[in-house]
Fold this protein.
Amino acid sequence: MQSGALRNSCISLYTKVRNGGSVSKTRNRSGSGVLAGGMSKKYDVLVIGGGNAALCAAIAARRGGASVIVLEGAPKFYRGGNTRHTRNMRCAHDAATEILTGPYTEDEFWKDLLLVTGGQTDEELARHMIRESKDILNWIVEQGVRWQPSLGGTLSLGRTNSFFLGGGRAMLNALYFTAEQLGVEIHYDAEVTDLVIEDAMFLAARLKRPIDAVNEIRATSLVAAAGGFEANIEWLKEYWGEAADNFLIRGTPYNRGSILKMLLAKGVQEVGDPTQCHAVAIDARAPKFDGGIITRHDSVVFGIVVNKHAQRFYDEGEDLWPKRYAIWGRLVAAQPDQIAYIIFDSTVVTSFMPTLFPPIAGQTVAELADKLGLDPVALEKTVTDFNAAVRPGTFDHTLLDDCRTEGITPPKTHWARRIETPPYLAYPVRPGITFTYLGTRVTKEARMLMKDGRPSANMFAAGEIMAGNVLGKGYAAGMGMTIGSVFGRIAGQEAAKHARN
Ligand SMILES: Cc1cc2nc3c(=O)[nH]c(=O)nc-3n(C[C@H](O)[C@H](O)[C@H](O)COP(=O)(O)OP(=O)(O)OC[C@H]3O[C@@H](n4cnc5c(N)ncnc54)[C@H](O)[C@@H]3O)c2cc1C
């Protein structure tokens, strides 16, 4: 904690916060990071990052009585990382709410997590997160975020996931507003380029650009909430090889994993497989970075997917879309030239959420193939074989229906219907990387563990940077925000507690 006059002013401020009184916005700002004599000011809690995890941590730490500084590497307009693109969050709840259509128990959440990860999760941590998620539904509202009833659509999330009114940006604006009102000091364009860590203790962060002539920020506790390394193509190439050049990054170009890399280099234990990530099939015409949600295709279950040789390569109807949409990025990444095509016909065009990009159309399968640059004969054969294998059933994309194929490999085990009504349509898709799972290992208190197994006294992590603790692989929609909110809040509380003590 600070000494002298600053300490006294902090104590009165802490009292104010604890008593629920309004907090001066200027207290932290008055110092502008510099104390008399040119020394950099020491904060109780430094939060690196500017997305959901960082803001939840900053608010929780501030409410816990700490002086808090947030360093967001992006410029103000781009503040909020991948969180800007989000729409919803998955939380356990025992009964329907105004916006959720029914209960989603801790047990069901846990079973879903087990299923999508194939058991590759830290059970203690994951169960803790699920339990805490119940409270987040209300806590996040107390921070100014508002919910809206979910939209229909292929993800069928109305019971399990709460949607942010106005989307991720509105959610972030509310969190930033609350943080500012509480007196959290926030800096943009404030990329951290080095961390001073000694004997598992965080001491200071160094900045690319000085803030008010200071380029080193000291703090009693650190919360690292600086995302994964998905926007660092060179790092992705270490595991994926040249294929990574064909990946499109769905979110912020600022998540380059620099903080993660520094922490691992300075003795923090890593968790997760570096090749595991959340990756979906997005339109091949999307921009390299930041294309966001409107580039994602949810039409897989309504058709078939072929590679550049016009061959199907995976069961398009394996499971409900919310449990399968996040495997398609990896599946496409494994195909030649990392490109694939979703093929469907005119009968289903209104069945899924339209994307930014119109489908490519042909009056015949051969004409469509021609436009896609595929071998017409090969695509015609694939479609004909598929149609011949379709068995009649009652179509319902909200459940595992009985529309399936027989006698072809790979099968389509649900939602199989003939593709036979022109115009024939297609979306070209590439792997759209959402976020990576390699991260820092943490305890239930969001405290980082060192390589030798010691818990760090003052370093905490939240969000994508530690998602691999819970997500060994796979994904269930809305969990990115659960991980960020739950562990962000815990990290902030624990960081403040450490600073207090
Ligand atoms: C298109 C899209 C849609 C998504 N939709 C959903 C959804 O609906 N529900 C869901 O649960 N998840 C969704 N996700 C995933 C979700 O966005 C993330 O899991 C979540 O936002 C992660 O929050 P975070 O705070 O950990 O990271 P981010 O929000 O990405 O924030 C990381 C921050 O760290 C900053 N930073 C990085 N390096 C430095 C540095 N060196 N110095 C200072 N700052 C740095 C970045 O600028 C950024 O602000 C979506 C992702 C994308 C891309």
